[in-house]
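Report of the visiting student (M.T.), summer placement. My assignment was to run the structure pipeline on a short list of targets and document each run. The first record concerns TRAP transporter large permease protein.
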Amino acid sequence: MDFTLVGVVGVAALLVLLVLGVPLAINFLLVAFIGIATLLTPFSATSLLGDTMYTAIASPTFTVLPLFVLMGALAAASGFAELAYKGLHRATARIPGSLAVATAFGSAAFSTVCGSSLATASVFGRIAYPEMRRYQYDKRFALGSIACAGSFAAMIPPSGMFILFSIFTGVPVGQLFIAGIVPGVLTALVYAISIVWRAKRNPALAPMLEEEHRIMLRDRVRGLLDLWQILLLGGVVIGGLYGGLFTATEAGAVGALGAIILGVATGPLRSLDKLRGALRESAGITTTLFFIIVAALFFSRFLGLTRIPFEITNFMTSWDVPSWMVLGLILIIWFLMGMVVVPAAAFALTLPILFPIVVELGYEPIWFCIIAMKMCEIAGVTPPVGLNAFALAGAAGKEVKISEVFAGVWPFVACDLIILALLLAFPAISLWLPQSMM
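After the run finished, the structure tokens were exported:
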């Protein structure tokens, strides 16, 4: 039987099952097992599955994931996001659209201790959205700013998506973390500029708050000081990585330990119910991600048997067109896939095929990862499968419709496209920090 033909049928079956709503991990396992059993034997498929489960989880990179997931869950339970939002709101008082600006920078700050875009969007949906509506902010403007600011966690370390990218490609996760700092901060700044500009042009979007006129310089300073927990924890983790004091795994352990110490010291985690809830949440997220990753790696082994990645790599690297056109085609593929499947699924399905092509064409792997993360941010808020938008709609309450969230994100998506163009034109934005670290 022709191995390539079986591979093509397997990929088609995978896409059909995704459209039908079969869970991602089960889809990967089912198609890969049947495909390998067809090409070899059922016993070989079983043996390969067992080997994949062991070798995948035994990898040191995998220990990074549960540690940073635990750090994020503990930080959320400790109320770090609420402190960041309220502190930054005082610091940005009297700026047009101050609540939305505080949301942008607050989400960026919270992302340094929480690697999940969905968690960030959900938390700020519960904190920021009621405040914006109480002060008569335009509903779509408010929802769009929260949903898109939540996507910062895909770029700002310790991003869970960076960890997945590292697992699928072998690029050191510590270097990816450092590479995401400048693009993440740049995105927050561009969002803030966009918010102020829009609020100035149309004050009805974000009415000025009367009590902000009573905020003095000392109140702004006190607001910034409220960020001390996030600054301390994020500074230790990121600074330790950049300074070479510890590896990414050790950084995750230090971050998780620091989050629980701060949470207990300041009060929230003294409640056993909150602590149990954070532990239960991190365990659930970790097991789900591990299941998806093992299944995706098993599927990538099936693809390797069919030689499809090898054939596609040969074809695209020998294609008589400029390399930037190949890169553009890859980005278009990701954009289209991001409209119908979640980013984790798109990475699991495409990286085993596309990453060798990018490396063969001479592009820097770390820079390519940053471009992938920016595409991931855009996919997280655009229809029909914008997970951040759905997470926000669920967290903000029954009065919020998903269509209203999607209607509010487009000005911020335009900002993301500007950042994407800058990252493509000036790779040094992504590479300066990791190269100085190395």
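DSSP finds 22 helices and no strands in the chain. The chain has a mean pLDDT of 84. I thank the supervising group for their guidance throughout the placement.
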